[in-house]
Amino acid sequence: MADQSLLFSRIVTDLPETVPFVPPEELERKTGVKIRLRLGANESSFGMSPLAREAMANSLGENHLYGDALSFDLKEELAARHGIGKEMITVAGGIDELLGWIARVFLNPGEPVTASLGSYPTFHYHVAGFGGRLHQVPYRKGKNDLDALADTARHTGSRIVYLANPDNPTGTWFTADELKEFRRQLPADCLLLLDEAYIEFAPEKAHFPVDPADPGVIRTRTFSKAHGMAGLRVGYAFAHREIITAFDKIRNHFGVSRIAQTGALAALKDEGFVRQVVREVAAGRREYEAVAKTLGFTAYPSATNFVAIDTGDANRAAAIREALWQRGVFIRIPGVAPLNRCLRVSVGTPAERQEFVRILREVVQEL
Amino acid sequence: MADQSLLFSRIVTDLPETVPFVPPEELERKTGVKIRLRLGANESSFGMSPLAREAMANSLGENHLYGDALSFDLKEELAARHGIGKEMITVAGGIDELLGWIARVFLNPGEPVTASLGSYPTFHYHVAGFGGRLHQVPYRKGKNDLDALADTARHTGSRIVYLANPDNPTGTWFTADELKEFRRQLPADCLLLLDEAYIEFAPEKAHFPVDPADPGVIRTRTFSKAHGMAGLRVGYAFAHREIITAFDKIRNHFGVSRIAQTGALAALKDEGFVRQVVREVAAGRREYEAVAKTLGFTAYPSATNFVAIDTGDANRAAAIREALWQRGVFIRIPGVAPLNRCLRVSVGTPAERQEFVRILREVVQEL
């Protein structure tokens, strides 16, 4: 390298120049398209609780103060709602940040990790970013293949197995009983990283119970989805207290913004708002499923705020996405086969859904 | 360890359970004291620009959307104002986050770093957090000892030398010419990490010029101080484009909140507000300096929004801090000798300064 100052660490030197997701704003800048329907990032078109908005508006005069590095009030409220101790909770700037902490805390360079092929790219990114080696297991019939994941975790000696429940990008889910059986199949030194970003949209039986005595499970959650606060950057994790202590040794202690703490605390208390969002999203999923059928596609059964519509063919999916994009509709297609036959579409408001369905029909007919 | 799941990475296992700063909220919870005057974290009592507040209030309906992972608009404005290319800028959730990226990008485990003894604890924390070895150089006559820092960087083979200009916790500063000479003394493979968190408060001649051709300097800046946005978590760095590219390989791409991007962009455009804050802070520093003198103490010459008042004795300083705390006044004392003789006090509003001075006089007389 030309200059000796530009000697980076071994891990960073070996990393590719890739990013987990190109943001929609950058896609707009690159293509000159202006987005009219933003349904590609599973943001909540229903916004956030009016109580959260009010609390944030009232706190605008406090932005000159650092937030509480311990997020004490927010953890206290989470602890009370989930019936667990505060010492089992950490708060971070979204699940993305948590995934980085987890890779950093658990992995030495070169150590193995298992996840589904096509699962959340940001997890894969952080595993690579800390020098981990990712083993990937194909989806099976549109779902994570739990047996194969456990097998791979075992024979590779994985330190972590990542599973999103409900899943992204398929939207599918497992019951707590299935997850408990999966947990039992994992080796004793393999952590189950259960990403529950979409758990609020899932039926009760998908809720894996919190066991404070089990050091082998971390669950990550967020205010980005059902609470409609993706832009605020606040998420949390439940884990054994020794894992929370390990996070405290490395985390950016003042990293969560004060206004996010304020908003999240107020949002937690507005259960009625979240229930209403969940109901509306369920109705929207049924609309998308019906439309998929009339177009000759199949929709994966979803317990999230999006639906993966299987067009049966990756080229067709790509063509549809491009035609949608040219009409200002932002959706995503998962990056790898066979999921790349699917259009992943967020459930928007009734008006957005109507507009999306109208344009989708138009596009499919034209192609 | 009892459970094999709790096997952490070698670096994390070796880390102590310490945090860079205990937040004032936690001090309140631990002691039962209620803070009346919060002058210990160098937050800006002058708040943020009304234009920033208005922009943020108007954007409250957008919090369900992720921010732009590239912070494009904010970088564009920063680039225009500083006359450099966008490719030399990165935006992060405050300087604290940037310091973590820098340690991660430049250090292999065991590699050496140089900083002043008593300089910013969060930098030390991140160096340790990525397995770096910190060499510390005592302050000399209340200032960073540039010659000794360069010597130590050289003989230890340091990859990074950290220098805050203006300095925290002393408030002192160097001219651009002194810094250029310092830069010349550093080995070719040693990065100068210039932390300019307080640069807006410093005289023009303290501004080290940006040289896009120099890959050996990173400058970190923030909206937390002069712009009064500590709670929002937004900072940025200027560096060689290859360093910015390295950050892009590891950073949390969606980590900066949308509302922080909005607020920071609006704040940048309100130069009059920052000028007014800087003038008011300068007046406040003179008040503190005068009071220090009447109490028989000396104030370090400061180009920041705080003043380090040297009481001449560490025990006296500790006693004063404790007495202030019992009266609800939050200030800090640097952690190591000889700086631990100093009270580090943020410059508050005129009313806060008056109240602080009244209580300080009372406390000093009583002790």
From TrEMBL, chains A, B:
Pfam families, alphabetized: Aminotran_1_2
Keyword Amino-acid biosynthesis: yes
MF terms in GO: transaminase activity
Domain Aminotransferase class I/classII large, first and last residues per copy: 37-358
UniProt keyword annotations, A-Z: Amino-acid biosynthesis, Aminotransferase, Histidine biosynthesis, Pyridoxal phosphate, Transferase
PANTHER family: HISTIDINOL-PHOSPHATE AMINOTRANSFERASE, HISTIDINOL-PHOSPHATE AMINOTRANSFERASE 2
Name of the protein described by the UniProt record: Histidinol-phosphate aminotransferase
Species of provenance: Kroppenstedtia guangzhouensis
